[in-house]
Amino acid sequence: MTYVFAFDHAHGQAPMLLKDLLGGKGANLAEMTSVLELPVPPGFTISTDACRDYIHDGWPGGLDDELGAARSRLEDVMGKRLGDPVDPLLVSVRSGAKFSMPGMMDTVLNLGLNDESVEGLAKQTDERFAYDSYRRFLEGYGRIVLDVEGERFERLLDMAKEWDGVTGDADITPDTLRRLAIRYKEVVSEHTGAPFPMDPAEQLRGAVEAVFRSWNGARAIAYRNRESISHDLGTAVNVQAMVFGNRDEGSGTGVGFTRDASTGKAGAYGDFLVNAQGEDVVAGIRATQPLSDMRSRFPEVYDELLEIYDRLERHYRDMCDTEFTIEQGKLWMLQTRVGKRSGAAALRMAVEMTEDPRINLTRAEAVQRVTGEHLDAVLHPQFEPGADPTVLTTGLAASPGAAVGKVYFTADTAADAADRGEAVILVRNETSPEDVHGMAVSEGILTARGGLVSHAAVVARGW
Fold first, then answer.
1. Integer Rg of the chain from CA
2. Please, are residues 234 and 97 in contact by the beta-carbon 8 Å criterion?
3. Single pTM value for the model
4. What is the C-alpha to C-alpha distance for residues 224 and 215, in angstroms, rounded to an integer?
5. Which residue blocks in 399-454 are alpha helix, DSSP H?
6. What is the distance between the alpha carbons of residues 115 and 203, in angstroms, rounded to a whole number?
7. Fold category of 243-381 in CATH
8. Which of 21, 65, 28 shows the shortest CA–CA distance to 46?
9. Where are the beta strands (DSSP E) in 166-292?
10. pLDDT of 369-414, one tens digit each?
11. Average pLDDT over residues 18-29
């Protein structure tokens, strides 16, 4: 049995039809690479078969050899090596189940950095970028693979900003980032009793195994229960060459939809950040800019993105959800999938796509696009027209409708209150995937931070 497939592997049929094998993300990355020929960073997919075999019997025999061969091929394509002390290759390791589960499983970025390769990256780019990437990798790998509490890293990051007298992550000085990386490694050693792993092969296997394990994590199980997704499917794992939205002020990252996922209005919609990585947007922890602001900041890239959105809608014949990165003025597409949408948006899109000659949806297809849950959502409570309620505050509406309930500030207390029969409003600084059980039982969700396309907003909008 073959477990590993390059994005440009010749499958003999459209990769988008192979979600059972490649997962949704892997199938669409292969489709964008080999069929649409979009600018996609090279990589490979470890199949859902490997995950299922791992869950049942442990690490699959032969996977190490396939993983090593796929890594070598990727290194040859990129002309760089993982862990190289002169000009290192870095990769991301991401989950990708057959059905979209936004934020419910794990991702590791900047894999391949160690004490030697970070110096090579600094010489190829600059010291600040290199050590910002390194501290991100140490935190992500430590938290996801080695089970270190994320708050330990966050406290050190806050101390670093206080030390430098700045408020933004992007303003921390290179010297402070270097010291922060040392402290992060000490935190890992204190927690695990062993040094942080420096061997790229060990790093890669650890990250892949962590993604496999995350299939049966509490938040993933809760999400599948809510969405009626089988627990037997397993997830694929996508290993992809890194491109860097945090390279400089000419770089950025974003999440965009080909139509408004809340209202269904035609036209690009989403959020982006300058000098940031994708997790900064989807995690909902940073104040984002609307996608339309790219028109003035990156006009040529924005026009290219709109052209790609048009191609994606025509190809998939549906609204698409995408993630992208701009590295020093170059646009890269990191993923696409058919986007989740509110009930009102589902109705509007279904009707308008029957009238759109680019998509030419049939009436029968349009009817199938609108589910019973979509119809139920359309009937959610609304403010009475002409009502003049007392407004305490305003914000961005990730989904239409109104909700009434008692406020709770943690997912656990919200879930307990719902079990007692209370109507619940979950209020958080920002939601995380660990909050999914509280989100699922809430009448409404209010957050202090995060954009309209964060994973939390995407999940809540679908519910």
1. 22
2. yes
3. 0.84
4. 10
5. 411-419, 436-440
6. 13
7. D-amino Acid Aminotransferase; Chain A, domain 1 (3.30.470)
8. 21
9. 235-241, 252-259, 266-274, 289-290
10. 999 888 887 887 877 777 788 888 888 777 777 889 999 999 999 9
11. 97
